[in-house]
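Hi, here's the filled form for the chain we discussed.

Project: internal
Contact: R.S.
Residues: 123
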Amino acid sequence: MSELGNIRISDEVVKTLVAKVAVEVEGVYKLAGGVVDEVSKMLGKKRLTNGVKVEVGEKECSIEVYIVVEYGYRIPEVAEEVQKAVLESVSNLSGLKVVEVNVYVQNIKVHEEPEMEEEIIGE
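And the returned structure, exactly as it came back:
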């Protein structure tokens, strides 16, 4: 408690920080949402924090990030970069001590090349 009163950072603020930073890491295709996020999507509600879970205390927090990695990137390296970026960003911007950043790779995005239509010659 400071001389002026309490400061409390909401879970949603931390989730928003995490989501923004995680999707900016090279190799991350998108965040992977869970069941609640899929229901929200069906109801037409778009949430930027899909795929992020946090527990925020008065001075520290723990974070879980669920991601989809782009094909061709080394999964452990992408996950580690997400951990580092989230840790640094949340610590610097919120002042909270980040106890842990767990990254769960839920899927890989394979970019499919568009199929070329075959031309039939001289039937």
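Let me know if anything looks off before we file it.
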